[in-house]
Each structure stands twice: as C-alpha cells, then as structure tokens.
Description:
The protein is of the alpha/beta class. It contains twelve helices and eight strands. It has an eight-stranded mixed β-barrel with strand order 1-2-3-4-5-6-7-8. Helix 2 runs antiparallel to helix 3. About 30% of the residues are buried. Residues about 345-350 have low confidence and may be disordered. The structure holds guanosine-5'-monophosphate and manganese (II) ion. The site of guanosine-5'-monophosphate has 13 residues, from strand 5.
Amino acid sequence: MQSKKISVLNEFLEKLLEANTSQDAERLINDYDETFSSDERPDVRRLWKSIRELGERLIKLRSEHNASQTDTDSDNEEFAESGRLLENNLFDYHFQPIVSAKDGEIYSYEALMRPRSAMRISPLQILKYAEMTGKLSEVEYRTLSNVLGIVDKDKAKFFGRRVFINSIPGAELDHSKYHEVGELLRRHADTAVIEITEHSELDEDAIDALKESLDSVGVKMAIDDYGTGYSNITNLLNYMPDFVKIDRSLLSGIQNSPRKRHFVREIVDFCRDNDIMALAEGIETTEEMREVILLGVDLIQGYYTARPSAEIIESIPYEIRQEIIHYSQERQDGRYKQIYTAEQSERLQLDKL
Ligand code: G
Ligand code: MN
C-alpha cells in the first residue's frame, strides 16, 4: 500500500483514540469514510472496513459503559438516601379512602408511605434498600408506630373509621419492639387493619404467624394484592382474613373481559360465603366501578373514588356517591343478571389462571 494512505490511516487511528465523545468519534469515521470506502484498491477498502468496524464497536462499548456508570451512580445515591430516610424516620403518610359499594360512604383509609425526600424515592425503593441491608423489621416498626402514632395524636381526624396499614410479610419485629407494637395494636384493635401482601411468592408461614399475632391482639387482617400470587381460594381459607383486596390487574378493563369477570365473581362469592369483605382495588373508571358493584364487592378503593392525599377527607364527591348508589340499586334490581347469563357456561378455575 502507498505510504501516503498508510499515514492517513494512521492519522485517523490517532484521532479516534483521542476523540472524547461518541459524537466526535462518529464524525471522524464519517469524514474518513468518504476517502477510503471508495478507494480504487479492494485491499484498501477491506482494510478500511475492518478499521471502521473497530471504531464503531469502540463507540458502542463506551456508551454502554457510560450508561451503566450513570445507573450505578444514581443507584448509589438512592441507596444512601434510603438509608438516611430510614435512619431519621423521614416518612410521611398519605391516606386513600376505601368506600362502601352500597352508598359511597367512606368506610376506612389506607395509609400509604411517602418518603420525605427531594429525590423522589418510592416506597418500593425503601423496601429494596431495607431488604438488602437486613432492615425490613425497622421499616415494619416505623410503619406501624408512625401510622398508629398519627391516629393517637388526633383520632377524630379519622372520623372513627378504620385505618389499613401495609405490613411486610416475614419482617419479624425485633424482640425489643415486639411488646411495644403488641400494646399499640391492642389499643387500636378497633381501628387498625393489617394488610399483608399476597405478592408472587406466597409465604404461608409468615402469613400464619402474622394471623396468629393479630388474633391475639384482636386486630383485623386484609390480604393485599389478591390475585397476583399463587394463592387460590382454598388456601385463602387457611388465613381467614377479614378483607380480601382484589388486585387491580384483575379489575382494569373488567367491563370488557368475561375472563376477569368470572375470576372476580368466584372470589366475591367465596368471600360472601365466608364472611370476608371483598374489596376492589385500583378502580380508575366508572365502567370498572359499575362492573365490580354488579359483581357484589363490598368495598371500593381507587383513583376514581379518591386519590391518596395528605389530607384525610370526610367524604368523596357527591356525584360519585350518586353513581355508586345507582349501580348498587341496579344490582339489587337484578338487572345485571340478564347481562351475565350468556357467560355461565364458561367456567374458570381460579388455580388454573
Ligand atoms: O400494594 P398496594 O395495594 O398497597 O398499593 C397501593 C398503591 O396503589 C399506592 O401507591 C396507591 O397510590 C396506588 N393506587 C391507589 N389507587 C390506584 C388506582 O386507582 N390506580 C393505580 N394505578 N394505582 C392506585
Ligand atoms: Mn395495600
């Protein structure tokens, strides 16, 4: 090859190594591409093709590295911030109304943790941090004592209604806190409802243990996110919760899904036969709300009826209450039955879904 071409290639490689950004490197490749990809000699064109590919791979590797570096940096910051929040108990709580499916009156509130941070840390990130550092029991303690502390400070704020509190399955309290929390729960037996999630893996032992402790202090239990895990109606009987919160994934767009309706109807019927209150979670539209009322749920929670808020509201908007009353009347009139007869042949088994 002519020494002139060799020295131009050399110049290219030197510049490529010095390029600071991917954009610089790309521009450089394009500049030299004009010269070499149309070279009259095939061996020069081949050589250029290989060099250009190496350059492109270099750019890709660099940008992947940078991206993962950025991820790690922000993970580290969130991790440190989660630690600081837990250490200093910087947790606020929002309250989302749970309303009666008969008349739209507020039945209770769910307390939802909101980390007090400029960094927008989600409750899930706090849980992830706590799990990685063995501090789940600290989160559990903070949640119970903070929320019941708010109730203690001003019980009238809750209009005598119950407060649902999310508990972490398997996060056993430290021995030193066990007595304190036991007393706190006993004192709030008429107010507190402990929610335990039925997420992905069903930790039966954890639920059993919790149920036993709650029974001993007379506090009610709710199974949260029902339908997302492996449980079926049979093992629901083992826990005998007071409430079953049917997960949003089974309810979104339920008015257009016969499968979801069948599934939910089985849950609701089971609940009615066993004195469990069925709650529809994550209701976002009036169509979904109508459908779950026709299916016979007892309680409704979701953005459509009320969003979580720092302020504890006394009632939901009048128009929405009227809608609930209307749908509930529709159910009582039995009009809904005609809509459903066509689907009766298609039965679904809960544990097959
Ligand atoms: O897992 P659990 O059911 O406790 O989750 C409650 C979460 O769901 C809260 O963060 C709350 O803000 C959110 N939430 C409440 N209502 C709705 C709703 O109608 N739609 C959606 N997408 N989320 C909701
Ligand atoms: Mn919950």
